[in-house]
Amino acid sequence: MRASTEPRIAPLTRRHLLSLVGGVAAASALGSFVRGARAATPTPSPAAAPFELAPLPYAFDALEPVIDAETMRLHHGKHHAGYVTNLNAALDKAPELKGRPLEKLLAELSAVPESVRTAVRNHGGGHANHTLFWQCLTPGGAPLAGPLAEAINGVFGSFDAFKEAFTRAAMGVFGSGWAWLVLTQGTLAITTTPNQDTPLMAGQVPLLGVDVWEHAYYLKYQNRRAEYLANLWRVINWPFVARQWQAARVGA
Ligand SMILES: [Fe+2]
């Protein structure tokens, strides 16, 4: 079992990143998770932002009672929207970056001009992380089964042991951040990142991301992060996570 609460952020070349997680497979997996983050259609104005906020794949109240509608409305419509707005504002200052895929910007932050690097890291990460998060959830949850279930059992011992380790990692995030199930060097692992950092920065493919910023749960759970995490298992979209994993593994 690999569980780390230490963010491992290192600049990587695209070639290095792909070699870590399986070449073409990695490109497919990364692309699949941020595809929804890209603008569906180009906007005509040169000042127009290339990234757009996609609608939630379900209604604001669809995850009740695990996550309340007001939290979802604010989280998506204010917080996530803010990351998109601020990412686009940063890219307006570095137009040479426009058109570059979001996952590439984040995996190769050292190639982003220093003047906008922090903004791309924070707001680009926020956009990518939330885009994945919404898809990792589904009303009523969808069960884990098949090869990913077997792989999780193999790596972590059992699904319950995985949930325990994941929850421990998520509880260990000091302040704001994320807990992740990732594919790294062909292996499933649990990791965490602070703020809006993404495992992409460490050459890892995020498969399941759980937002532990207080804005994700405070209205309903106040400071009870453990209760939020315990309930969140009821709405995880495991078939989506499994598709992310399969896409990352193809050709590995
Ligand atoms: Fe969030």
Query: What ligands can be seen in this structure?
Result: fe (ii) ion
CATH superfamily: Iron/manganese superoxide dismutase, C-terminal domain
CATH class: Alpha Beta
The count of strands amounts to 3
In words, what does this structure look like?
The chain is mainly alpha-helical. It has one domain: Iron/manganese superoxide dismutase, C-terminal domain (minor pseudopilin epsh fold), CATH 3.55.40.20. The chain contains ten helices and three strands, in the order H-H-H-H-H-H-H-E-E-E-H-H-H. It has helices spanning 14-21, 24-34, 69-92, 102-107, 114-136, 146-156, 159-171, 218-221, 225-232, 238-249; strands spanning 177-184, 187-194, 205-211. A three-stranded antiparallel beta sheet has the order 2-1-3. Helix 1 packs across helix 2 (24-34). The longest helix has 24 residues, at 69-92. The radius of gyration is 17 Å and the shape is globular. The two termini are 20 Å apart.
Summarize the structure.
It contains ten helices and three strands.
List keywords for this structure.
252 residues, 10 helices, binds fe (ii) ion, 3 strands, minor pseudopilin epsh fold, single chain, mainly alpha
